[in-house]
Amino acid sequence: MIGVFHFDLLQQSDGARRGVFHTPRGDVQTPTFMPVGTVGTVKGLTIDQVAATGAEIILGNTYHLRLRPGHETVAKLGGLHAMCGWEGPILTDSGGFQVFSLGALNKVTEQAATFRSHLDGAKIVLTPEHSIEIQQALGSDIAMVLDHVIALPASAAEVEDALARSIRWAKRCREAADRPEQALFAIVQGGLDPVLRQQCATELASMPFEGYAVGGLSVGETPEEMYATAGVTTRHLPAEKPRYLMGVGTPRDLIENIARGIDMFDCVMPTRNGRNALAFTDEGPLKLRNAVHREDLRPIMDDCPCLACRHSRGYLRHLFNAGEMLGPILLSHHNLMYYSRLMQQARAAIEQDRFAEFANSKLRGWGYEPVPCG
Ligand SMILES: [Zn+2]
After folding, report:
1. From the CA of 280, how far away is ligand 1's center (Å)?
2. Residue 172: its H or E element
3. Which residues are annotated binding-site positions for substrate?
4. For 255-280, how does the pLDDT look when each residue is reduced to its tens digit (9 = 90+)?
5. Which cofactor does it need (predicted)?
6. Per-residue b/e over 87-125, b at no fewer than 16 CB within 10 Å?
């Protein structure tokens, strides 16, 4: 397994890390943002449009693909890469988060998470081994361990119980994952408790995983709590492995967490907001349905090479007001391009060893003061 996946830490600046994650389907420059292709499509965009934003790796959702079209059908269609036409690396989550956020009547035992499909009510038993089996059938390049996700706030006993189970399930996933061409990332849990985060990170770091994720965040805590928890967790993870903060976040969240040593992110925010007429810019989000844009000839951003910024704000507003499908397509492209370029700029700033200066300038542009690292 050694050598197939390898992370090179190239440079550090003010806590931020510049690296390259080598995979059999290509290199991923970090820090990186992964567009979310929940059911084998990044909503609204062709795969060429996704690639044109500069994305090097995309995400697929095990839970959704298990239910529809089914992992066996994906395998018969040649696997997730062939099915959706993406030749670069793909990361699949384990289904843990969706089971707990979407799966009605879910029940967790030591053996498995049992839940009912949100589509047809069918009963599904998701063991750690089955999660790996699904991710192998999908053929992703990076698989995630199945973890026991709980809602916050939760009692200390609930957090500890879920954490201990997540570690036992991570071991079972490691034993079941036997394909050298598929990396396996562990997921650190522990709620907002720094002691539990340290304990979980240390325990998982002693096991052979190709990367480590910080899970259980972006579930209702404040941004400051999220940043503090990410910071505590990365301090106890091995420097020579990539760190992935799951399901995060706003441009501000990305910059603050890069400053705390995170290398990889994913979030539906750029595409979901794009579908709702919200465009990210260096001056903060722009609501394109607003009347103020009616006769505005300017693009969303002057220097943006995306498909939307060939047009005026007035035209984009008209598309949304008329309910035309091109509006969501164009804004999804702009937002993914914005996230991708933000990561490119962050990488350049780390290379030039001026990450703090870069981060402060971006944060202030969006109207935030930087949160001091603890
Ligand atoms: Zn643009």
Report:
1. 9
2. helix 156-176
3. 93-97, 147, 189, 216
4. 999 999 999 999 999 999 999 999 99
5. Zn(2+)
6. ebbbbbbbbbbbbbebbeeeebeeebbbbebeeeeeebe
Three-state DSSP class for 185? strand
Contact 5/184 with Cβ under 8 angstroms? Answer: no
* Fold observed for domain 24-267: TIM Barrel (3.20.20)
Q: For residue 299, what are the CA distances in angstroms to 168, 187, 307?
A: 52, 41, 10
In the 8-state DSSP scheme, what is residue 1? -
**Mutual angle of helices 251-258 and 223-234, in 10-degree steps:** 30
Name the pTM for this structure: 0.97
For ligand 1, the distance from its centroid to the CA atom of residue 305, given in whole angstroms, is 6
Around ion ligand 1, residues with a beta carbon closer than 5 Å are 304, 306, 308-309, 334
Distance 292 CA to ligand 1 centre (A): 19
The amino acid sitting at 159 is V
